[in-house]
What we know:
By secondary structure, the chain is mainly beta. It has one helix and 24 strands. It has one helix at about 285-290, and strands at about 15, 20-25, 30, 40, 60, 65-70, 75-80, 85-90, 95-105, 110-115, 120-130, 135-140, 150-160, 160-165, 170-175, 180-185, 200-205, 205-210, 215-220, 225-230, 240-245, 245-250, 255-260, 265-270. The longest helix has 5 residues, at about 285-290. It is globular, with a radius of gyration of 19 Å. The protein starts with 13 loop residues before the first strand and ends with a helix.
Amino acid sequence: AGGQTARTLNGQNLILAAGDVVFGDYAIYAFDQTTGSSRWVFDPEKQGIAGYAAGAYELRTDGTTIYAGSGSGHAYAINAADGSLVWVAPLAVDGHSSVYDPVIDGNTVYVTVRHFTNPITGAVFALDRSTGAVQWSHVFSPPTPQTGSGPLDKVVVFGNTIIVSVDDGKIYSLAKATGVVEWTAPRLPDATGLDDSRPIILVRTTLVAGSTALELTGYDAATGRLLWQANGGQGSAINSLATDGEVVYVPYNNGALGAFDGATGAPRWIRSAPNGGLFTSYPLEEIRNYIDWTP
């Protein structure tokens, strides 16, 4: 209710950890990978642990620990072997906030927070991977009283920075150590509406961003400098992008799927889904989220 719907695709909250298949719904469930027998359930609301809806959004694992956000404003670390709590971090327990999209990087776990106020606001938190202690947070302020500023999707890690897009169409690069802004890419001038959903993905050293506008945009991930713009003639691209490390794949809102060179923005091909269907962003990069696969 109130816009607090899960932002994950089917399968994005399904991971493999410690010999189990772990699935997030409202709670988090683990099943033996070989036999399918139930191994454990993590449901904070029923287990006397602060928070609820730990399985509602995307899960992450390093193989031994599972990291999760929640619909209650908490972040969790869970022992993958038995489902026991490692730590819980109350980040925004105001009754109208959710924690999303853990990203593991070294000794830090980054999560995004969205406050379902009017307008939507939010922040990025850097948490100690072992304890859940907050290392820093960066709050995004709305540029106008009508414009949202909540983070969209998970952060992208690049060198000593993390990169995130927010509701108003801006993209921020933050220092991993401090959360200080390194660079900002502005909202596209032809974006429609007050907000602009801009999915981002890293293709080598180029950050590629979609938009409600007509352009797919490539930025230098180190500086934020605009490198290229490409108009595939298919309208908005606000769904999750995918990459094989060279080409970026774009599922357009009209159901088409496009492939563009990540370094130059040159189009490779654009196809419509057969039988009037819709392409969704399952290939390549997103498959890593389904099974936590590392090549």
